[in-house]
Amino acid sequence: MSDTILSGDFTIYYLDDNRQKRIKWTGAASGTRTMNELYSALQDLFDESLQMDDGIPMSAQTPVEYTIGIIDAGDLNPWYISYETLQHLTGGALQTAGWTHVDTSAIGIITVPVTAASSTIVAGDIGYDISGATTGHGTLLDLIDIGATNDYLIIRPDSNAASDNFTTNSQTITCNGHTAPQAQAGSNTGEMIWANLYSLGTIEPDTHIYLYQGAIGSDERVRIYSIADQTQDWWSDGHIDICIPIKDYTTVSYDVIDGGYVTVLARKYTSLYDSYEVACSTTSGGRNPIPLAAAPDLDNGTGYKSITTTAVATDDFAIGDEIEGGSSGARAVITYISGANPTYTFHYYLIDDPQTDFQTAAETIVNNDSDGEATKNDSAPADQGPALTTWYTGAGGTGAPTATYGYATADIDDNGSNEYYGITIDCNQCPLTHVYEWIKYVTRRGATGTTNTDGIAGEMYVGGEVYLKYSGSVSGGTVDEGDDVTQATSLATGVVISHDTVNKILLLRNARGVFSTSYVVTSTDHSGSFTPNTAAQNFSAKKQAPLGTFAGGTFFGARGVKLTDWASADENQFILTPVEGGTVTRPTAIVLEVANLVGAGETAITSDRVGVFRLTGLGGSIDKTEFSAYGGETAGGAVLDVDTAIPQDVPGKTTGGVLRLRDASDNYKEYRIRYSSWLNNGGGGTDGRFTLANIDVAAADAGTDTDTIVESGAFTNAKRGDLVYNHNRTAVSYVTEVTDANTIQISPAIASQTTGDHIELNCVPIAVDTADDVYVPLIDQFATSATASVSIVYSDPIYFRVVVRNVANTTPIKPFSTDDSTSGTDRSIATIRTEDTIYT
Q: What does the CA dihedral 299, 414, 419, 567 come to, rounded to 10 degrees?
């Protein structure tokens, strides 16, 4: 016996129908009804005389909060509603009453896990008797197949007797002639709660909202999918009004999942992202509003895939159109079109859920915004834009940016004091416009990679939210990056992005609650604890783009995000916020450039040698006494100190450059040494320190001779022009060619140099005295392209000399030299290439 209500959308099975007593959605696959519609229809049905002897299925506590199960006093068997049915209900929350099974006391409803791979029980068995070979008898009410290790059988036991519970591990369970091995000793039972979530606000068309749920640890948060299909959710694009379970039926006592928290995200590529974390009631579920705002992002318009057509019915395709694959079902939005009828290439980004890409084989491509139709060629979709490494290379970089997580310091504003950071983005010389599109790409919906998002899926990464600082010490263990932490009394929680144990600063993500300076914070992973008695600040993450936003030509880093290796043209195009708050910017920077060069790589002898040298003043000579050596270094040292602070306009503070050391004891003989960075107060007093780009070959490998040095893997970072110092021969030479990572060629040859010699590149070559001088060319390199440039912080007018020489090229040139100056603006000097017809 069964009844239907609401035009057949729900079917009601009664206790007399083999003790089913359940409610199931039997309407259209995409149909929905409100919770109140179901409640009201059930009240109408059970008002009828024939149902007066049946227990009422539902009660209403408020217009948006309802209960199902045992409603009437004396009812022994609770009403069951299937999990899939809840996916068709909107407008209210639902909790159960009487689902908890207690041996000898309450029949309830139980959940029995069975081994999925060995189960033959199917959905068609629902409503039949089910029994275990050793223990357990009842009626199968539901089958949840989530495609994992276990399936879950929802069963109404025949009675509250212990013998009707399923308590034997590995026993064979039989239903309607089908079998399955039980996967644990005992069943799961408890009350279930479905919270109602509905979004509001303005979002972009084709935005698909998605949800994450689970503990804050990186491996525990999971995407919410349909109970019937673990590859997708059950709602359509646009705003949502859905019911989701906030208790876990796969645990013994139906534990509340992560305190009832659910993270809702709207991250349609090419729009500004948004997210919201809601704390649902753990007693009723509640109806929870989700405010979202997702507007077009004018700085994120580059698609990340492309397909090519072989036939087009019309030319009716345009940027912004939605296209769909006739066979694959892929849906995408066009961002760029190249070619001409009939061969077009469409660049695009994917929409829909799940995000399905176009198939490799040819298929019809339909324009859903017009009558256009095309045939895709017989090839796989190609990576484009931020998905393509060479896209960044073409912009002047050497590949995509990367992000690393862990404490870091930097003096971005060059005020002499470091700021503190927890995330570092290596721009890899890419322009910030590309860095920003990369950020959007690695955190978009569909970004499942974890490399650049702290070990969690990029589509759910939100960013830093808490700054803590303490003055004492960590006791009882450690607090490591990646640990979950909890604060006593406030009960605030979070995950450690970075922990600077020297400066005692932490950056947390996935924060819950408000941290205080009064209570102990403890790592649940490594037991370390501390009191953030110096600072405890909760702050808002950058929802629009988790690692930083871009507006008006300026990049605004999320709090705690540091940039490195940015393109020189972007020196003054970003604003960063350290972990401790406030904002910092680079001092005014200028670019000095030498153009019209011949550059084929540092190892090519045909490349120009280009130098830009600081002058003593207008019409002056090259300033070779820029610094006096601090003195005290011995040959082989990896740092070189000077006796005054290094001014801001000396290039390469973090990226390195080239310096010249002049030996006063040897008629001011000059040595060219490459350095990797510089800082002030690095040695003693107020002196400056250059950290040399040192490569130490402790004992040269076989194959080393007077003009060749071999050392396995040592020369990956070596460059032509690097200084070479042989400790055994007390001799200096320079690299003329980096053959490969294992071998370099040098000149002049070092007499008697051989296998086993201790050799260093870019080290101090002499015993340094205070009488020695140091100066730093603004540019000193072999040209690698048609231009050579340097970005420097401007403080005072700079007078400089440009020198370009090359007689090794097929077309030798006469030496070019010219003087110029800058008072705070970029300068570009074009090389005048006059062929030297006399040189032979």
A: 30
